[in-house]
TrEMBL record:
It catalyses: dimethylallyl phosphate + FMNH2 = prenylated FMNH2 + phosphate. Dimethylallyl phosphate binds at residues 157, 173. The keyword Nucleotide-binding does not apply. Oligomer. FMN binds at residues 15-17, 41, 92-95, 127. It comes from the Eukaryota. Keywords: Flavoprotein, FMN, Mitochondrion, Prenyltransferase, Transferase. This is Flavin prenyltransferase PAD1, mitochondrial. It comes from Aaosphaeria arxii CBS 175.79. InterPro entries: Flavin_trans-like (IPR036551), Flavoprotein (IPR003382), UbiX-like (IPR004507).
Amino acid sequence: MTTPTPKRIVVAMTGATGSVLGVELLRALRCMNIETHLVISKWAAATLAYETDYTVKDLRALAYKTYSAQDVAASISSGSFRTQGMIIVPCSMKTLSAVANGYGDDLITRAADVTLKERRKLVVVARETPLTGIHLHNMATITSNGGIIFPPVPAFYTKPTSVDDIIKQSVGRMLDMFDVDSGDFERWSGF
């Protein structure tokens, strides 16, 4: 008898602003005992240091396993490594463009390409504003190939009182994309 595959999600962080979203997503997944496979780009590490008090070491401690962004031979670069999918949070427009165009020159974009080809869930937390036609075209390309574009737009119906409230709601909705309920944010219940 074969051992069932554990619930696994690949988490990638790029250099776009919003690194706290990736941190909080990793925390939530760890609390739910979901196996995370983390890739942090060089610019994600720089942005993390600029925007937060967290270190790359702190992030690695939240993940089940971590990989170098240059390690394109890592297990997550193969379709035979089974996962529930992948989330890129935050996702820069550079990475979004590479994913949209199948340019797998590092582990983040290779793992995203594998996720799409295996018809697994790819969630791209795109962080940029305003958007150009090029950005929108790349987003449409990813969507038409099965990916989900998830801009972290705050829900004001929750009447957030802090940035933490907004982050929790965004992370909770990201987890919803993988049918994982954090139970940690307010949902719309109607008027």
